[in-house]
Amino acid sequence: MKIKLDDIPEEGLSLDVIAEGKDLEAIAGGLDFSIPAPVSAHLDVMSAEGRVIVKGQMSARAAFSCARCLKIFEQPLNSEISLFFVRGKAGVQGREHELTGDDLEVNYIEGPELDTDEILLSQIALEAPMQPLCAVDCKGLCPACGADLNAGPCGCRIPVEKIDARLAGLKDFKVK
What we know:
The protein is mostly beta strands. It is elongated and about 70 Å long. It has 2 domains: 2-127, no CATH class; 139-176, no CATH class. The protein is built from 2 helices and 7 strands, in the order ββαβββββα. Helix 1 packs across helix 2 (116-127). It has helices at residues 21-28, 116-127; strands at 2-4, 13-19, 39-48, 51-65, 72-87, 106-109, 113-115. The strands form 2 sheets. A 5-stranded mixed beta sheet has the order 2-3-4-5-6. It has a two-stranded antiparallel ribbon with strand order 1-7. The longest helix has 12 residues, at 116-127.
């Protein structure tokens, strides 16, 4: 959904937004995860003097591939949204500019519209885990045969701990 910045009333807008996961994936291009269900959000949008504040909550489900066992699993992603936008281009034209902490909180809008799909997509990307795990205690795959160790031992009889012969002397090393 696109919001025309000039059409935001003084008292602001209160919106309930639903975006299809497939549409968000298409906007993003390539993601490391999928969004199998619609994403819902409640957004309060306020505008004054070229500045736009967006606050609200988002709820989504994402399907990830476990970083250890490669099993696909779904995880809920819930987020509080608090964004500050300024109309115009980022940075100072023609010269270098040192960023302050406040500058990192500002987003810039160059056009006449605010796209809620882009807001939702950025929030999902921020909430997505860097190393998704199907379970905290996931054992992963056997490094020798590739069997899923969560289902039980693989029985491939490869020693779990191979020690490099050059470092074998460190095995008996103890720090006092």
